[in-house]
Structures are given as C-alpha cells and as structure tokens.
Specification:
CATH superfamily: Ureohydrolase domain
Strand content: 15-25%
Order of helices and strands: EHEEEHEHEHEHHEHEH
CATH topology: Arginase, Chain A
Distance between the termini: 33 Å
Radius of gyration: 17 Å
Structural class: alpha/beta
Shape: globular
Number of strands: 9
Length: about 280
C-alpha cells in the first residue's frame, strides 16, 4: 500500500539538489504533554487541505521539485540511538547536496540535525524560534532532552552563531545566559535587517518550534505559552529567510491531539510548504 506524501511531492526518494522532506516522530522526553510523535502524519494529512501555491512567496510547489522520503521509526530505540539514526540519515541527505527539512517530533531532534549539518557546513549559523529558551544544562536528571537541546547545540556552534527569537519562557538563569551572550533578538518591527546582518551570507539552519506562535492561533502543542507570535510575525521570518543561505530547517512540537479543530496541523502544513519553497529557492 502506498503511503501518503506531503502535497505534490515529486518523489519518495532523494533527488540530488532538490529539498528532501523527512518525518522524525521522536516523542520520548516530554515531561508535560506528549503527542509530537503524531505530527508528521498529521501534517501530511493536513496538506490535502492547502494549495501548492504560496501567495507569500508567489511560488508553487508544482514548479519546484522536492522529495518526501518518509519517516524514521523510533519505537524500539533509546533517545541516544534515535539521535544517532537521525544524524546518519541527515549526513547522507546533506552530503548529496539536498537541503533538508525535518518534521518533528520533539525539539530534541535538532541536536542530531545540527551535528550532521556541521559536517557539510562548518560555519553554520542557527536561528532558533521558540517560546522556550531550551537552555538548561540538565533537566530531570538528563543532559539531552527538549529542555536542554539548545545548550547542547551551542556547545557545537558557539554562542556567537546562535540567534534566538520569540523566547518568552525559561528560568531566571536562562534569561540571564541569553542577555549576557546576546543570543536573544527582539522581534520588533524591522528586526529582519539585524537578523540578516548577523547571518550575513553564511549557511543558516532554522529550528522552528511551533509553540513560538500564540496558543490562541496554535493550541496544538504540548507546552503552550500565552503571548506569542501571530502568524504574520512568523511570515516576517519566513520572508527574511528568502534572503538567507538557508541550507536546512526543522519544524517541531506540533501535538495534534490538543487541537481537535485541526487548525494547528493545517498551520504546520502551510509552514512546511513555505520552507520547502524557500529551500528550493536558495539552492
């Protein structure tokens, strides 16, 4: 039986030079409300309800080939083995010249994806859009989980190559860490110019935790935080990305079970469409 592909996917195997979409339904370290493992399937199903054409970008996926290569299965793996498998697959995709878009799953997947990206792009800059800082050194006795992922990532890329957007929740120590190291960029009007200056023309990895959006418009997430971005705020970031050297991205932390309306999954599918187009445009 054939599996469902995202929108108008041209292939289910890697096409060198074209974006590769992969589902990474890792859902192992949630400490409040699990459910992100259902996200890739929900995003693909929701893609049936959106158009292939993006009014924001004036581009159509029908004219921009991409592959949907399916999901990894983590059901019998530990967190460490799961991350190792993600890293191996990401290295294979990126080394073939394919920009990679990953659908989580929990945010922990970003650690393995950045490890892989650094092999091909050693001067990588990371943009982290999120409600939460994810900068704890340890959380509930573990050094690798959704609450520590950016602390582990910054150990790889360095603080000067981490740019954080939309953060509105974290410990006092985490906010002090961000302020002292100037990683946090306020998403005020015209902040896009500062973002482009800080990324210059270096390769960029975008990690987009969908709970950066206000739960009033995106309730389908495990750790909602009031007061977040509107969808228009997110579109500003997506538009700015068209002027970057975007080489890879992830979209994480959709938990479709918490939004029976389906609006959150449709929103996630729309974001995936835009990122596929941008990744194809920048390569």
């Amino acid at each position: 039986m054939s599996r469902q592909l995202f929108l108008e996917a041209h292939a289910d195997t890697i096409m060198p030079g074209s974006p590769a979409l992969v589902g990474l339904p890792l859902d192992k370290t949630a400490t409040y409300r699990p459910g992100t493992g259902q996200a890739p399937a929900a995003i693909r199903a929701a893609s049936d309800s959106i158009e292939s054409y993006s009014p924001l970008l004036d581009l159509d996926l029908l004219d921009h080939p991409f592959a949907d290569i399916g999901d990894l299965d983590f059901s019998n793996d530990s967190v460490e083995n799961s991350l190792g498998r993600i890293e191996d697959q990401a290295k294979r995709i990126m080394s073939s010249g394919c920009p990679m878009l990953s659908m989580g799953g929990e945010h922990t997947i970003t650690l393995a994806l950045v490890r892989a990206a650094l092999e091909t792009y050693p001067d990588l800059v990371l943009i982290h859009a999120d409600a939460h800082s994810d900068l704890r050194d340890r959380y509930e006795g573990s050094a690798i989980n959704h609450a520590t992922v950016m602390r582990r990532v910054v150990e790889l890329v360095g603080r000067e190559r981490l740019i954080q957007l939309g953060i509105r929740a974290g410990t006092k120590e985490e906010f002090g860490w961000m302020r002292d190291r100037f990683t946090l960029l306020s998403w005020r009007p015209a902040a896009e110019q500062e973002l482009l200056r800080r990324t210059e023309r270096r390769p960029v990895y975008l990690s987009l935790d969908l709970d950066v959006l206000d739960p009033a418009c995106f309730p389908g997430t495990g750790n909602p935080e009031p007061g977040g971005w509107s969808y228009n705020d997110l579109e500003r970031l997506l538009w700015a990305a068209t002027s970057m050297n975007l080489v890879a991205a992830d979209v994480v932390e959709l938990s479709p079970r918490y939004d029976p309306s389906g609006v959150s999954a449709i929103t996630a599918a729309r974001v995936v469409r835009e990122l596929l187009l941008i990744l194809g445009l920048t390569h």
